[in-house]
Amino acid sequence: MSSKFGRIIAGLLTAIFLASCASYQPTSRGIASTDEEQLMELHFQALINGQAPEQEMIDYIDRLVNLLILTNKDIATFEKELDAKIAIRKKNSRAVIEEPLASKTYTKLLKKWKLKDRYTAEIAYFYLRCLEMRTDKSLSNAEHQRIKHIQQNTATYLANTQDLQRVELQELMTKLSEVFTAFVQAYKEDYAAKHGGVVPPVDDTDAASGFGQALFGSTTDLYAYIKTHNTTTYTPSTPADQKRQAEFISTIDQDLGLIEDPDRDVQSVQDLTCKDGKQICISTGEAGNIVGKVFPKGVWAFTFDDGPAKSTTNMLAALASYSDNVNPHAKATFFQLANAAPKFPDTVKAQFDAGYPLENHSFTHPDLAKSSVNRVHEINDSNVVLTKEYQKIQSDYVIQYFRCPYGSCYAPKVPAVRQMIADQKQVHVYWRIDSLDWKLLNGPKVSALVTKQMQLLDHGVILMHDIHPTTIDAVKLVLAWMKDQNNNKNAKYKMVTIPEAVDLVNGAH
Ligand SMILES: [Zn+2]
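Above are the sequence and the zinc ion SMILES. Below is the predicted complex in structure-token form.
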């Protein structure tokens, strides 16, 4: 097996698995280099050698769909909790209210996202292994036909799923498409190298393409569907399917039991690492982890992650047209990926021109809490690449802030990662309000979730993603709400960038 394929796996799969598995025996697959890959390979072998691999493949995808529908239910519960807290606050303005993100519902959501990543990675791994087997000349024709049957069966199933499943499977489909594209590219290069530059016959890979492409339709249709349908419940129509769903939910419960509880408790211990009485500074402790709890009253930092992307231009336009009685301009801070920024030089320039600080959100967006991730690449190399891009516009620009993907180094639970960020002379930025925009993909729903949390909290860091067109709709609605609060309801909401917020906090001391 070519080492190129190994690199595809390393680059594309981000499963979260138990770090060790005592009963594990090395498989024949030489490229399974990490524990989690080895475990996925074991699962794949069990599936492929089982009684009905084509049905197991479909069951796994359905289990993922059911998990995601459960998360929609949790989001609805989270919003109801916010409503209840707002009602308490209205009755008694001095009532002590639990931080929204300290809610058990939010913690449950975080665990479900982790399980979602694990399922997605494993399905993508199975798909990649099927592609490899389909093109492995050492396997028999009968074996090729068997694998082809599994892939065709899955593709047919996906092509016939209902709209709700379709919505929930978008992320998986994007992942499968990436796997497929990278595989074909590597396969062609490998084949050409071995055959004096000859391009491989189309049939070698083409028969497998349906799987990855099956669900791709128009995103406009997707957003329209989400806008008009309730996605929090799903009841299958036949008793047999209802029984199947109950089994999925039971399996999901068991799998959730294997996911570690997220540790997001704000430390109450005073961090003494800052000099000169500052409250925020480069530190592996709480002082080096900006949430926004220490911001002055009414101060908000809007932050946007995962870009730049095509949609960033529209986000900049939405921000540029804003002003209210307190804020002459909108302010925002962007946490960007090193594998994206070089592709959008005009966007980077426009962000600079608008005065928005540009920071680091890693190279490829892995979970840095996982020890198998190349942290030097993700933290140090990304700084080099992003700094080079940013300095094309402003030659003395220095990146001062880093945000871990998934917020996975919130607490000092991952001291090695936090130390690496501190070594880069950067402060870690977390959030106090989670918009859940990437999951909701719906402007009004995201806006409602954000403004409800803003009513409860008064100040802090707000997390959003400029890569989703629906988040631009959400930002317009949040800003319209804020303008009404400031211009008509005597609120004093002030928009700041992260560096401005830090100056306010540290300077006020
Ligand atoms: Zn991110």
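Confidence is low (pLDDT under 50) at residues 1-31, 210-214, 266-270.
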